Amino acid sequence: MKRSKKITIIASFVVLLVAGAAIAAWQITGTGSGSARAGTAGDLTVAPGSATGDLYPGSTDGDVFIKVTNPNSYPVKLTTATIAGPITPAECLVTASSDPVDLSAVPVIASGATVDVTLSDVLSMGDAPDSCQGVDLVVEEITVQANTAS
Which residues lie closer than 8 Å to 126 by C-beta, 6 or more apart? Predict the structure, then answer.
């Protein structure tokens, strides 16, 4: 083998060796730990919505209108609502269904947002006196349930 060819082969080997060492010098690793924290869930706010006059003596399909606000830092999806409290004024003889109301059709509520929700066909009115015409009824203790939305 000629001397120049030997020198070329040795020089190429040295260059590859130095390049490999240079690459290896930049490969650095580390191992450690990190931290995370789960958020906390805040209660949804339920407030009266804008009602319509759909109740009359003998009706069984009255609606309840509410506004639901999500104070959380994440979106939520409503699942059901229940009415557990009294309806005033009592002399108007209005009663509510005790069955849960399906709210799956209500859109996802974004963080900090408020949506209008209608609880359909949940009120009935008995033989109420004339003094109940046009009266704003208060439906107390409405509870809504929700899950985190993905």
Answer: 57, 58, 93, 94, 95
